[in-house]
Amino acid sequence: MKILRAELLQSAGSVGQFPSGGLPEVAFLGRSNVGKSSLLNALVGRKQLARTSSKPGKTRLIHFFHVLAGGAEIALVDLPGYGWAKVSRKERESWGKLVEGYLGDRPCLQLAILLQDLRRDFSEDESLLLDWLDERGIAWQVVVTKADKLKPLRRAKRLKELALQLERPGKRLLATSAQTRQGIDEIWRVIHQSLAAEG
Ligand code: GTP
Ligand code: MG
Predict the structure, then answer these.
(1) CATH number for the domain that contains residue 137
(2) Which end of the chain is more exposed for a tag (fewer CB within 10 A), N or C?
(3) Nearest-angstrom CA–CA distance, 11 and 19
(4) Which range marks the domain in which residue 146 is found?
């Protein structure tokens, strides 16, 4: 994928700070440390456009990136992760408000990409999120991250297990790695398809 442009458009700590929403948006959701910011960077081929960290809870604001790629002009949206035990209740509530404020009222949101670490089981959080997206008619794709962490045979077995756990027949899991770039072109295909579907 030829990336002509990738730059930070806006960082928002509250709903009032969201950009006006002229571009179709693709948002990255998932547990803290699952690799949302890393995947976004891999998609645009930039190492630290979105800030990453080995410690969970790195992304605290919603970051909107303006991206021109393969003839499409979109915003990639890096969301803070959930499920981080060390966060205070107050912080968790403010995260909830921010992310719900985004997902609940964002007509330009074209596609939600839900990330899942290959080595972890799905939790109720993922299942509730997908139900919630379905109820609102928001298209989603589940992407499995850190595929490089397991050897090919274990990886294939694990992917099958996760597909069963997901309990969404007909829905495909995409295995990816920000490190080896496995699956990155496929994510771009899914993004372009979702833009085309909207027409
Ligand atoms: P929050 O901002 O806390 O919600 O986390 P995040 O989901 O944005 O995760 P982030 O991209 O910051 O990555 C977390 C850690 O996982 C970092 O140490 C990354 O280097 C590592 N990581 C992310 N993707 C991969 C991958 O594909 N392979 C490997 N081996 N490590 C990865
Ligand atoms: Mg992050």
Answers:
(1) 3.40.50.300
(2) C
(3) 9
(4) 3-198
